[in-house]
Design a protein that fits this description.
The protein is α/β, with parallel strands linked by helices and about 325 residues long. Helices cover about 40% and strands about 20% of the residues. The protein has a domain at about 1-180 and about 230-260: Rossmann fold, CATH 3.40.50.720. It is built from 11 helices and 14 strands. The strands form 4 sheets. A 7-stranded parallel sheet has the order 3-2-1-4-5-6-11, with helices on both faces. The chain has a 3-stranded mixed sheet with strand order 12-9-14. It is globular. The structure holds nicotinamide-adenine-dinucleotide and uridine-diphosphate-N-acetylglucosamine. Uridine-diphosphate-N-acetylglucosamine (UD1) binds near residues 86, 124, 125, 197 and 199.
Length: about 325
C-alpha cells in the first residue's frame, strides 16, 4: 500500500515508518518538524535500504497539504501528527486545540476530497482518565483530565461522526499505553527536546549522566511497592500494531477502537531495576511527592487487538530497557 504518515519523523512515527517499509509498503511522511528532526528519516532509509518521501508541511496549512494529495495516490493515512505534552497542554490549551484538532480537520477533509478513506489514528490511554478498574477495556468510560487528552477524544469522536455520515470510511483508532524503547539498531529512538517529563527518557538521561537523579513521584500509592504502575510497551511492538491495523482495514472494513498495550503493569521501581540491569549503570533516585494528575495503576486489556488484529506485544521490559539504553548510549545528545 502507499501510505501517508503524518508526524512520521516523530518518536512513534519513525519506528512505524521503518516497520511499514520492512512490510513492503511505500511511505510518504508529512511533518512540520516542530517536535522532531529530519535525521530519523535518513536513518530509516539506511536501516531498511528503502526510500521514503517526505514533505515539511504543517497539517493546518490546507493548500500545502492539498499539494501532497495532488501528487500521490494514497491508499491509507496513519495520523500521528500532534502535540503531546500533558503539562504544556494545561498551560497553552488553545495551541493544543488548534494544532491537533484543526490539523486533523484539514487532513480528514482532504482525505475525503481525494477519496482516501482509510485511516489509522493515534489516540491514547489518557482518554480513559482515572479508570474504575484494571485492566482497561475499550468499552470503559472515557473522561480525559487535561486538554491534550481532550483533543484525542474529540478527534476520535470526529472520526466516529465521519463514519456515521459515510460508512465508506475505514477507521482504526489505536489507544496507546506507555510507549518506550527504541529500534534494536540503536539508530532511531526517542529524542525529547527539553528535560523529559516521562519516566523512561528521564531514566535514560540519568544513566548517561545528563541528569543527576530521578525523582520518583510518590511511594504511597496502593500498589505492591507504593510507586505508580503503567503498561510500558516497546515502540517496535507498537509500530507493528499499525501494520496489523492497516491489514485489518483492508480485510474487514469499518470503524474499530483498540488498546495497544501489553496487559502487564510495571512499577517505577521495577523499571529502575530493569534499566540498571540493562545498562550496568546505577540510577540514583529520590522519593518525591506525587505528581499532580497522576493515577496509581493503568494497564490495558489487549484482548480485542489480539482477536481482531492478530497482534500482541512480544517484547518485555528487559528488552525495552536494553533497546532504550543502546539508543541513549550511542546518541547521548539525541539526533544532534
Ligand atoms: P512526537 O512528538 O515524537 O511526534 C509527533 C510528530 O508530529 C512530530 O514529528 C511533530 O513534528 C509532528 N507534528 C506535530 N504537529 C504537526 C502539524 N501541525 N503538522 C505536521 N506535523 C506535526 O510524538 P510521538 O510520541 O511520536 O506520538 C505520536 C502520536 O501518538 C501523537 O499523536 C501522540 O499524541 C500519540 N501518543 C503518544 C504517546 C507517547 O507516550 N509517546 C502515547 C499515546 C499517544
Ligand atoms: C504520561 C501522560 C499521559 C500519556 C502517557 C503516555 C502525564 C501526566 N501523562 O502518563 O497523558 O498518555 O504519558 O506516554 O504526563 N514518574 C516518576 N518520575 C518521573 C517521571 C515519571 O516517578 O520523572 C512516574 C509517574 O509518576 C508514573 C510513571 O512514572 O507513575 C510513568 O510516568 P510517565 O512516563 O510520565 O507516563 P504516565 O504518567 O503514564
Amino acid at each position: 500500500m502507499n501510505i501517508l504518515v503524518t508526524g512520521g519523523a516523530g518518536y512513534i512515527g519513525s519506528h512505524t515508518c521503518l516497520s511499514l517499509l520492512e512490510a513492503g509498503h511505500d511511505v510518504c511522511v508529512a511533518d512540520n518538524f516542530s517536535n522532531s528532526k529530519e535525521a530519523p528519516l535518513s536513518r530509516i532509509q539506511e536501516i531498511t535500504g528503502r526510500r521514503l518521501q517526505f514533505y515539511r508541511i504543517d497539517l493546518t496549512q490546507k493548500a500545502s497539504l492539498s499539494r501532497v494529495f495532488e501528487s500521490h495516490r494514497f491508499d491509507a493515512v496513519i495520523h500521528f501528527a500532534g502535540l503531546k505534552a500533558v503539562g504544556e497542554s494545561v498551560r497553552v490549551p488553545l495551541a493544543y486545540y488548534y494544532n491537533n484538532i484543526v490539523g486533523s480537520l484539514v487532513l480528514f477533509e482532504l482525505m475525503g476530497a481525494y477519496g482516501v478513506k482509510n485511516i489509522v489514528f493515534s489516540s491514547s490511554a489518557t482518554v480513559y482518565g482515572e479508570p474504575e478498574k484494571v485492566p482497561i477495556q475499550e468499552s470503559f468510560p472515557v473522561c480525559p483530565t487535561n486538554p491534550y487528552g481532550r483533543t484525542k477524544l474529540y478527534i476520535e469522536n470526529i472520526l466516529r461522526d465521519l463514519y456515521a455520515a459515510d460508512p465508506q470510511w475505514n477507521i482504526a483508532i489505536l489507544r496507546y499505553f506507555n510507549p518506550v524503547g527504541a529500534h534494536p539498531s540503536g539508530r532511531i529512538g526517542e529524542d525529547p527536546n527539553d528535560i523529559p517529563n516521562n519516566l523512561m527518557p528521564f531514566i535514560s538521561q540519568v544513566a548517561v549522566g545528563k541528569q543527576p537523579a530521578l525523582f520518583v513521584y510518590g511511594n504511597d500509592y496502593p500498589t505492591h511497592d507504593g510507586t505508580g504502575v503503567r503498561d510500558y510497551i516497546h515502540v517496535m511492538d507498537l509500530a507493528e500494531g499499525h501494520v496489523h491495523a492497516l491489514n485489518r482495514l483492508r480485510a474487514d472494513p469499518g470503524l474499530a477502537t483498540y488498546n495497544l498495550g501489553t496487559g502487564r503493569g510495571a512499577s517505577v521501581l521495577e523499571m529502575i531495576a530493569a534499566f540498571e540491569k540493562a545498562s550496568g549503570k546505577p540510577i540514583p533516585y529520590k522519593i518525591a511527592s506525587r505528581r499532580e494528575g497522576d493515577i496509581a495503576v493503568c494497564y490495558a486489556d489487549p484482548a480485542l487487538a489480539e482477536k481482531e488484529l492478530g497482534w500482541t506485544a512480544k517484547r518485555g521490559i528487559n528488552e525495552m530497557c536494553e533497546d532504550a539504553w543502546r539508543w541513549q548510549s550511542k546518541n547521548p545528545d539525541g539526533y544532534t
